[in-house]
Design brief:
Order of helices and strands: HHHHHHHEEHHHH
Radius of gyration: 26 Å
Distance between the termini: 68 Å
Helix content: 40-55%
Strand content: 5-15%
Strand order of the largest sheet: 1-2
Structural class: mainly alpha
Largest sheet: 2 strands, antiparallel
Length: 223
């Protein structure tokens, strides 16, 4: 019995810490600065990539996940034995079509002609907000997002909710100026919807201008 216990104990994997102990800065006392104690060495030795404004554990997790997705996608696209109608075939075909930039350039906006026609036909603010609902079903960004989530006041149920989605542009100046309205009319219709009449800027009234918050105001702590 004693021998079996020893064998079982030997077969169990050794436990490892889930913490990045190498990133600790032992020169700092945790009671003085827990943040520096737990990550001081990592902060001092980790370089932020040139194309990033910040970097951290979640950034690395995202990079690793994207790399795994790319490997899976490329494998599906190059698999000659994939079964017709299978998930691998659908994924591989989607990736192949997405990467065929020559065909995309040759076709231009022709595949979007019907959808752009729908946008051109919008005549009122009501029409625009109706289109927001359609756009969301196709993953097209719109200023208002609808979703179903847990009720914050009664956690046993789910309710419909609305949130500000933005225009896929950084700040209000990008859509409240004549230059951008003209650009929207010229072709940027999917992410910056323009009805032509009334002008895009007037669809979002002065009330929106007063209630909207800039990046600067959002970055300031409440007094």
């Amino acid at each position: 019995m004693g021998l079996l216990s020893l064998v079982a104990a030997a077969a169990e994997p050794s436990l490892r810490s889930g913490l990045d102990l190498a990133g600790f800065d032992r020169s700092v006392r945790p009671q003085d600065d827990l943040y520096r104690f737990a990550g001081g060495t990592w902060l001092a030795t980790t370089e932020i990539p040139a194309d990033r404004s910040n970097y951290g554990t979640f950034s690395k997790l995202e990079d690793d996940a994207l790399e795994s997705l790319r490997t899976l996608t490329e494998a599906a696209a190059s698999d000659a034995t994939r079964a017709p109608g299978s998930d691998a075939q659908k994924l591989g075909d989607l990736f192949t079509a997405y990467m065929d930039t020559a065909r995309i350039e040759a076709r231009g906006l022709e595949p979007l002609a019907a959808e752009l026609g729908r946008i051109d036909s919008l005549q009122s603010t009501r029409d625009v907000f109706g289109y927001f609902g359609r756009a969301q079903r196709f993953g097209i960004a719109s200023p208002v997002n609808a979703y179903v989530g847990q009720d914050r006041r009664q956690s046993t149920r789910y309710i419909a909710g609305l949130s500000q989605g933005g225009l896929s542009m950084p700040d209000s100046e990008y859509y409240l100026t004549d230059v951008v309205v003209l650009a929207a009319k010229a072709g940027l219709k999917v992410n910056a919807i323009s009805t032509g009449s009334p002008p895009l800027a007037t669809l979002f009234s002065s009330k929106e201008k007063k209630t909207g918050r800039t990046r600067t105001s959002l970055s300031k702590a409440p007094s």
